[in-house]
Each structure stands twice: as C-alpha cells, then as structure tokens.
Amino acid sequence: MAYSAKRLDGKIAIVTGSGQGIGYGIAKRFAEEGAHVVVAEINPTTAAQAAQDFSKIGPESLSYPIDIGDPDRTPQMVADVVAHFGRIDILVNNAGISDKMTLMEMTPKDWDAMMYVNVRGLLFTTQAVARQMIEQVPPEIRQAGRSDACQGKIINIASIAGRRGRSDAIHYSTSKSSVITITQATAMELAPYHINVNAICPAAIWTALYENLDNRMAEKLHLAPGEFFKQRIQKIPLKSPGTIPEVASLAAFLCSDEADYITAQSYNLDGGSEMN
Asked: Which listed residue (172, 193, 210, 267) is catalytic?
C-alpha cells in the first residue's frame, strides 16, 4: 500500500534492527511515506535485502550492517550516513532481544546480553544521533533554547513488559522499563532543541523474534508450537494480537509534523493490557 500523504517526504531515517520483524515494518512504512531509510541491522544479508526492498517502493535506502551494542561503531555510522545523505532527521531504536526466565534461572551472561542490546545499544545510538541532530539545529535556535519547528524525531521501541515487573522475564522487563526512563530523560535534555523523543510499548506481536521465544517456551512447558502465544493473547482484553502495521502507523505519526508537540511519551499498543 502506498501512502499519498508522504508525511516523511525527503526525511533521512535510521531504523535499527530493520532487516526483519517490527523494524522492517516501520522502515517499509517510512519508505512508503517518502523517507530515505538507513537499515542499521546486524545481519548484512537481511540488511542488504531490506534496503533493496525499500528502494523499490520509496527513495534511495541504505544498508548499514552494524552491532548497535558497540558504542565505538555508532558514531562512525552517523558520520557515514551524514556523508551519504547530508543529515539525519529520524532515529528509530528498534533493535532488541527478548527472552523469558525466572530469577533462579538467570545467569550474569543472560543479564548482560539483554542489557547490551536493549539498553546499552539504544542509549549510545541515541547519544551519537542526538549529537548530529543538535549540530544540525541553526545557531540562533541553539542560543535561544527553543524552536517553533521540530528539529528531529527519536522513537524507542519499548514494551508493555517495561510497565511493571514480570516474574518470568525480570531482565527483559527491566531493560524495557529502562527504555521508557531513557525516553523521558532524553526528551527533557533535547527539548531545548525541539528534538522529540517518544516510545512505543507493544504487547504480543507475532514476529520471528516471538516465534523463537514461543518455540523455547513450548519446549520448556511441554506445549504445542504456537500455544504459548495463544495463551498470551487470551490475557489481552481485546483477545487479539497487535500487528506490525499498527506499530508502523504509530511510528510514522510520531515522526510526522502532526506530532511536533508530542514528546517524552510512551504509548501502549496492547489491546488494553496496561492502562498507564
């Protein structure tokens, strides 16, 4: 489906983890709305394929294989993107991992792996891109400490698991609550430049990531494949899963001019599971 509004026409958008799943869906929607997409993806094969796909439906997109958990790589990515496109207008921090285990099952390695991608990677990618976004702000706006027009958009993909502790996913829920806190803190720090920072908190959405989790939980709990996901859906008030296009639609709105007065917010996309 093509979007005639082209709300993101000409924008330069980095979307991490956009070689598949939710990140792919967001990046595809951005391309349909006229954005140049940088596919910042750890898998070079899926990164190249995704960039090729997006270039067919929108303006030129760029494949950029990267481990966003490595803070030494992200400043170089920013420099390379600016050298290629001239600026950065949008960052979507989507790359992340998920797992379920109890307190007694968890090891330091499990904890560190979760924080490496979901928190460390997101934070230092934000830092590197925010520095560039600030540099792009006209000197008179930087001096005044306010702007009538938005100077950049950052979207963090959190989770409703970050809204409260989960006994079967302590490290994951902690990482996603950190994403929500980082969203709030960076929004306040970047507000003088009118760089908006918001988060999206999805519930259960069937992706390759969730399928892997479902398979592990099915083996652990002696369930049929897909049954763990079905049981999760039954706990949602609307009794249905979310979809990737729904996340992409919200991300596109938050990155558009229509959302220039929205910052520091975390939106639940969860069928009524959480109410805060």
From this structure: 172
